Amino acid sequence: MADPAPAARGHRRRRIPTTVGVVLVAVLGGATWLSSGAPGLPHDVVSAVEARLAPAPSAQVVALADAAHLSDDGRTLFYGTRPQVLGAAAFAGHCADSQALRAVSAGGAVGCFQEGANSIVLYEPADPRLHPAVVEAAAHETLHAAWASLSADERGQLTPLLEVEVAALAGDDPILERITASVGVHPEGRPTELFAYVGTTVWRAGGLAPQLEAVYARFVADRAALVAVYTDGQALLAAMGAEIDAASQALVTRETTNAQSRAQYVADVSSVDYYRQEYQAKVAEVASMSAGLRGRLQLGWEWWDGTKLPMAPAESTLADAAALLARDDVALPARVAVIEVDEGSAAAERTRVEGLVADLQALQAQLDPATSPS
């Protein structure tokens, strides 16, 4: 807020009557009192005055209001809190106050609304793909400010409606865990947390209870679009996880097949080596025989791969065995070349999948400013 003193001194130099000066001082003093919390005045009155007194919102803050689909009243509340959007290092400690109303993601606070100070602090992850998280948090904290502006009668009417909506969620809905984390040891804060979480994350065809939607509409111009910010952000991480699962399963199949091919190749090489030695021994044995004996000798063989060499003159059978060895000497190197290509491709795919895992883990870490790299 601009320092009012120079304006007051200027008026005195023009000798404005004392009564006018007193009025000016009283008004300006009242503005200072309002910006300090204005105990006893309705929160919406305080917020409206502060919004007029606060500096114009930055382009970043206006962009957040746009992305959160805030209405004019919602923007007034949001801008009036003088939102701070901070990286992990700067955000540390800002939402540690036990009385702060916090938005929680991935186990840590990602934004908070201090009702007494009427201030909002938001955490902005470094990766732009996670920008929906800060949009959701901005809307969440604005709805805390909105809840504070409602009358006690309105809150009393809305609270049971909110409980019904939350009770209708699936038991494994992550929002339930986030509500519990945000409420913590302050059960009195449950209604405002329900209002903020339901408003930003829960949508059903036809909308929620009409009374709830009517109140939300005062602060959010398009709640379906706001909830889509949350669901799209969740869908990004879910899609990454699904891609990793599918790629991992396919990779395991490929690596298993390659391992089996490699093992079979090694076994076949060993078999060929054994049969080569047997062939060479038989060739030497036959060569040592007399010509007459060699001419009468009949040989038959079953090759290592099941190929049958029927009983025939020794020289014919040995020639067929030599041809099989020559075949194997061509086939085995060709087989291992294919295996090596498949193994190389699988290794590259493993590197890619590990990169996907690391990317997802980095994003998940960034969702919690306490674990995000500065």
- Give start-end ranges of low-pLDDT stretches: 1-41
Largest sheet properties: 4 strands, mixed
Radius of gyration: 38 Å
Query: Strand-residue fraction?
Result: 5-15%
Beta strand count = 6
Strand order of the largest sheet: 1-4-3-2
Distance N terminus to C terminus? 31 Å
From the spread of the alpha carbons, the general shape counts as: rod-shaped
Q: Determine the number of helices (DSSP H or I, runs of at least 4 residues).
A: 14
Mean pLDDT, as a whole number?
Answer: 86
Write down the domain tally.
2
Give the SSE string.
HHHHHEHEEEHHHHHHHEEH
Helix/strand/pairing category? alpha+beta
Oligomer: single chain
Helix content: 55-70%
Describe the fold and architecture.
By secondary structure, the chain is an alpha+beta fold. The chain has two domains: 56-221; 238-367. Helix content is 67%, strand content 8%. A four-stranded mixed beta sheet has the order 1-4-3-2. A hairpin with a 4-residue loop joins strand 3 and strand 4 (119-123). Helix 3 (43-53) packs across helix 5 (72-80). 26% of the residues are buried. Residues 1-41 have low confidence and may be disordered.
